[in-house]
Automatic annotation (TrEMBL):
Its main location: membrane. Coiled coil: none annotated. This is ATP-binding cassette domain-containing protein. It is found in: Cell membrane. Gene3D superfamilies: P-loop containing nucleotide triphosphate hydrolases. It comes from Amycolatopsis samaneae.
Length: 245
């Protein structure tokens, strides 16, 4: 399985503001690999995640293609068939993966029963989400807890493509290492994983990412291994590696 963006341009015009948020982006997320997407806040990373999961706003004007396993995905009905079971998303704000009116545990159990792929115990163990938080509502969780709950929810259907938007942003260093190890194991089992992250230091010290791509103002400006990107003359790209070893 491979997910791809091919010369994808996304323009948003709300009537009050107009902006090209992705500009001729081409990016491949292949099976068995972790692809890390780097970029400053506001450069379009979350919009790229939305494009790969069928979550672009209805007002978006789109050219180019999104392909999943070589097949262009062109309408919302097609995305409804893919979302969850084939393509999973860990959103940047984990709380948005759940409804406010029910406990997280109840929603995870419902997802387990719907998909019947991974068991709840397996998904929660992989995401490091504690069972003693099951009876809490989403807003009662810490930022780190709800992010791990969102990862568990994404893993339950065992999607072949997993898009993780800042999966370790709210975690301490030890938990972040464990979550990256889970994503590495998931990719090694055959999944295509795209991780959107600012945690470049951890990526470079662990070597968990197979490939990195750098997004700047809606465009991919560089792609390659950590060592390849670190050696580039572009100060924007090199800036991500200043604090890494």
């Amino acid at each position: 399985m491979i997910a791809e963006l091919c010369e994808l341009t996304v323009h948003i015009d709300t009537g009050r503001w107009s902006e090209t948020v992705l500009d001729a982006v081409s990016l491949a997320v292949p099976a068995g690999r972790i692809t890390a997407l780097l970029g400053e806040s506001g450069c379009g990373k979350s919009m790229l995640a939305a494009a790969l999961t069928g979550g672009l706003p209805e007002s978006a004007q789109v050219t180019g293609e999104v392909l999943v396993d070589g097949v262009p995905v062109r309408d919302r009905r097609h995305w409804r068939r893919l979302r969850g079971r084939t393509v999973g998303l860990v959103p940047q704000a984990g709380v948005t993966a759940f409804s406010a009116g029910h406990t997280v545990g109840a929603q995870l159990r419902e997802r387990e029963n719907r998909y019947r792929r991974w068991t709840l115990d397996r998904a929660c163990a992989a995401a490091r989400y504690p069972a003693d938080a099951f009876d809490l509502h989403p807003h009662q969780h810490s930022g780190g807890q709800i992010q791990r709950a969102a990862l568990a929810a994404a893993l339950l259907p065992a999607p072949e493509v997993l898009i993780a938007d800042e999966p370790t942003a709210s975690l301490d260093a030890d938990l972040a290492h464990e979550v990256w190890a889970t994503l590495r194991q998931y990719a090694d089992a055959g999944a295509a994983v795209l991780a959107i992250t600012q945690d470049v230091s951890l990526l470079t010290t662990t070597g968990v990412a197979d490939r990195m791509a750098v997004l700047r103002e809606g465009r991919i400006t560089a792609a390659g291994s950590a060592s390849e990107l670190r050696s580039l003359a572009d100060p924007y790209v090199r800036g991500f590696f200043l604090d890494s070893v």
